[in-house]
Amino acid sequence: MRPIADIPPAAPFRLQNHQLAQVLCQIRFSTVLRINQDDAVIPFQEAIRQTYPRYAKQQGMAVLITPQGVQQQAASAGQHRFDDSDGVFTAILTPDFVALETNRYADIEDFVRRIVELGAAVEEHYGPAEIQRIGLRFINEVRLSSPDPKTEMREAISPLLLGAAGSDELTAAVAATQEILELAGDDDIRMLVRHGLQPQGGTTVDPLAAQAHFGPQLAQPFYLLDIDAFTERNVRYSVEGIEVTLREFNDDVRSFFAWGVNEDYRRGKLGQEDV
């Protein structure tokens, strides 16, 4: 598989002060209606219960556009949510996807191992015929602690990514920025990058989860760099295929991050260590 775009590949590295607010992976598969039945989820829970002992069922919401306006109603299928004892990882099962999310990402080896175990449990107990989508998403909120956040933004983010917001003529007048890049590669691989200056601070993810990671920094302005690599195509369900795809996505995301965040800032402020 060729990388997305012509961004130079980046060798693996570790950030001692990473700015990840959340990491998510979703494996969408051909619908298994049996998962709508709570009893059918018991064997799946037994397979993962030692790792994710806490269980809750969350009812989804559907949005309807009607002549009377926008209305919400309960969706037919709920989400089965399984949390680890530390509240760090959450596994989610529905009739058409399994997902993993965390607000304390450690490394790709641990994350891939966990999602492969979830994918194997789905294969064993439900045997879906196809995988329809695989996505791996890294939500970075680069906190800007300088008294002049826009100056720090220019130190942190490549001028190629900042574009007009990083120009000498406009920087002083920039109040906030939002941009979406949609990139397409070979083999139906795509990448969606949402990025921009968020001068009011806060977070784009669950506030409680962000508070646990960023603490008082949550009030600081930040630069959002939300990188989502995914493929949408129907292929035979294969746990081995999931692992290969996720590792390739991780390489793509790492390379984009290294291209978009200046090396001096990564090594200085973020504490980059080559591995």
Labels describing this entry:
single chain, alpha+beta, two-stranded antiparallel sheet
Content-based structural category: alpha+beta
Q: Return residue spans where pLDDT drops below 50 for at least 5 consecutive residues.
A: none
How many individual domains?
A: 1
How would you characterize the largest beta sheet? 9 strands, antiparallel
Q: So how many helices?
A: 7
Instruction: State which percent range the strand residues make up.
Output: 35-45%
Strand order of the largest sheet: 3-4-5-6-2-7-10-9-8
Distance between the termini: 23 Å
Mean pLDDT level: 92
Global shape: globular
The tally of strands reads 11
Q: How much helix is in the residues?
A: 25-40%
N-to-C series of helices and strands: EEHEEEEHEHHEEHEHHE
Report Rg: 20 Å
Give a concise summary.
This protein has 7 helices and 11 strands.
Describe this structure in words.
- The protein is of the alpha+beta class and 275 residues long.
- The protein has helices at 42-48, 108-126, 149-156, 159-162, 207-214, 239-260, 263-268, and strands spanning 13-15, 20-29, 54-66, 69-83, 89-94, 97-102, 130-143, 179-184, 189-198, 222-236, 272-274.
- Strand 4 (69-83) and strand 5 form a beta hairpin.
- The two termini are 23 Å apart.
Which helices and strands appear, and what pairs or packs with what?
Layout: E1 13-15, E2 20-29, H1 42-48, E3 54-66, E4 69-83, E5 89-94, E6 97-102, H2 108-126, E7 130-143, H3 149-156, H4 159-162, E8 179-184, E9 189-198, H5 207-214, E10 222-236, H6 239-260, H7 263-268, E11 272-274
